[in-house]
Inverse folding.
């Protein structure tokens, strides 16, 4: 398994319960595809550098995990179709 890091920004108008549901959705997605979460940081609501999908703020989440390429591909696919996520970036960490 390789080490990955994913940063994603969730819509700011969601309440804490909805934010946690989105975070748990992606956490579960990684674990169901054979990955393991190494670290999960909720950075909170921050101002964006530029407007994304009519939002000036976003709730930032940083997650480090170990997984296979198929888990990363599925994670990327689900990020793209999830309306609550404004932006995401998945990076493979150096060994």
């Amino acid at each position: 398994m390789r080490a990955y890091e994913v940063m994603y920004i969730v819509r700011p108008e969601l309440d804490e319960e909805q934010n946690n549901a989105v975070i748990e959705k992606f956490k579960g997605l990684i674990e169901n595809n054979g990955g393991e979460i190494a670290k999960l940081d909720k950075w909170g609501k921050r101002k964006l550098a530029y407007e994304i999908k009519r939002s000036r703020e976003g709730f930032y989440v940083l997650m480090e995990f170990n997984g296979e390429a198929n888990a990363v591909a599925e994670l990327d696919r689900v990020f793209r179709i999830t309306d609550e996520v404004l932006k995401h970036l998945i990076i493979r960490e150096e060994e």
The beta strands are 2-10, 36-52, 55-67, 85-92.
